[in-house]
Amino acid sequence: MNTGFERDRGEFARGTRAIIVYPDQGASSRDADARLEETAGLAAAIGVVVADKIALRVRSAKPATLIGSGQVEALAATVRMEEAGLVVFDAGLTPVQQRNLETALEAKVIDRTGLILEIFGERAATAEGRLQVELAHLDYQAGRLVRSWTHLERQRGGFGFLGGPGETQIEADRRLIRDRMARLRRELDQVKRTRGLHRDRRQRAPWPVIALVGYTNAGKSTLFNRLTGADVMAENLLFATLDPTLRQISLPGIDKAILSDTVGFVSELPTQLVAAFKATLEEVVSADLLIHVRDIAHPDSEAQRADVESVLTDIGVGEGTPRIEAWNKLDALDPDRRAAVLAEAARRTDAVALSALSGEGVADLIERVADHLTRGHRRYTITLAASDGAGAAWLHQHGDVLAQHIDGELATYEVRMAPRDHERFQQRG
After folding, report:
1. Would you list the DSSP string of 286-318?
2. If one looks up domain 207-373 in CATH, what number appears?
């Protein structure tokens, strides 16, 4: 079955001219320009050409069209003038509103959720990611009465919102959607069980898990690459990373830790995606430490921080999970703002100012992470046979050897390590 996420993306879809509309209902903590810029960035992520960006003040939402009739007429004129084939509303639209707006504007209309789902559909690279995105997309489509369920039967390329053969056999398609969703959930349950087994194995090892979280495009993947030497996709694109990436790293006093790079969050992240990506985000829920990467140069950095914390709460991450904030993109600040950020970070124990791009401040972050993870470490005096090279190597690998003294056939080591590692050393064969 062609689900729409396995299809070819037709070249005709890229370059589609679009109007970005932000219906300002006074509920957002961001200003209208910031919202428009973010949505334009989301559209650009799938190759849409933004012809115009318009903020509309909406005093009371209209059930039929969300915006007022005069605003609809003015927007229709702009669509014609710009020869736009797509209008993106930075808001949630009901199926009725979407259908009525398409009729009035004579253009495709999608809302914020539909746009984000399209990006995720294009970016998911692994089998798990594709399952999660497809489930989210089908969940979203199941409640839509506009256009068709053509992602179940489309034979030609193109984005989901750019058409298909027409609206046919809706009830049959709804049944197909429900059946497909049931199969996807079973497959994702298996993924969840497998991930749980891997996690249990790591906890028995035991290795601490550090998860990078943050708003999309905050620089998580760039920092991940800097810390691990990996080559995870790191571009100036929203949602450049969808699928979780795990790498082993070494830290001072810790021979091995697992670093996880996760999908970026965004304001008003569709509930369908939060639900679908829970299997992936369980790496975050079970992490020993979160590094919240923030784009400290972004004008809405504080609002983005609040959005990330909101999503963390939604997926079950409690306030008790330790966090360190990595204030990224120092290199993008002017001298005065940079000095202020550095001074503020110096006063806090839970924040480090850095540039993942240049590497400035990354060593400070590593030290802060290691200090946190080794906070429960104790100092032990261990005596071994001087000839026990394997034992000495184990101590150096799993602990911080503070001093050593060899007296004849005996070697004494002063080592700082986690109690669990000391217990493992005592039990070694």
Report:
1. T-SEEEEEEETTSTTHHHHHHHHHHHHHHTT--
2. 3.40.50.300
Which of 309, 311, 344 has its CA nearest to residue 327?
Answer: 344
In the predicted model, what is the mean pLDDT of residues 228-235? Answer: 62
Question: 177 vs 108, 120, 132, 174, CA distance in Å?
Answer: 22, 19, 14, 5
CB atoms within 10 A of CB 24: 18
Domain 11-162 shares a fold with domain 207-373: yes
The full set of domain ranges for the chain reads: 11-162, 207-373, 378-427
Quick check: 415 and 380 in contact, CB under 8 A?
A: yes
The token pair that represents 66 in the structure block: 């969300």
Question: 416: which strand partners?
Answer: 379, 400
Q: State phi, psi for 170 to the nearest 5 degrees.
A: -60, -45
Q: How far apart are CA 390 and CA 316, in angstroms?
A: 42
How many Cβ atoms sit within 10 Å of the Cβ of residue 218? 28
The predicted pLDDT at position 153 comes to: 41
Under CATH, which number does the domain 11-162 receive?
A: 3.40.50.11060
CA 272, 274, 277, 282 dihedral sign is negative
Residue 28 pLDDT greater than 90, yes or no? no
The helix or strand, by DSSP H or E, that contains position 33, with its residue range, turns out to be: helix 32-44
| DSSP tag of 8 | -
Using a pLDDT cut of 70, give the percent of the chain over it: 80
pLDDT digits over 129-184, tens only?
788 788 888 888 877 744 443 444 443 333 444 444 444 556 777 778 888 889 98
How far is it, in rounded angstroms, from Cα 348 to Cα 228?
26
Say how many C-beta atoms besides its own lie within 10 A of residue 378's C-beta. 12
Select from 128, 353, 121, 119 the least CA-distant residue to 245: 128
Are the CB atoms for 276 and 136 separated by under 8 Å? yes
Burial 97-107 (b: 16+ CB within 10 A, else e): bbbbbbebbeb
Cis bond upstream, residue 206 (ω within 30): yes
Q: 306 with 29: CB under 8 angstroms?
A: yes
For residue 242, the model assigns a pLDDT of: 54
Q: What is the pLDDT of residues 44-79, one digit of tens each?
A: 888 899 999 999 999 999 999 999 999 999 999 999
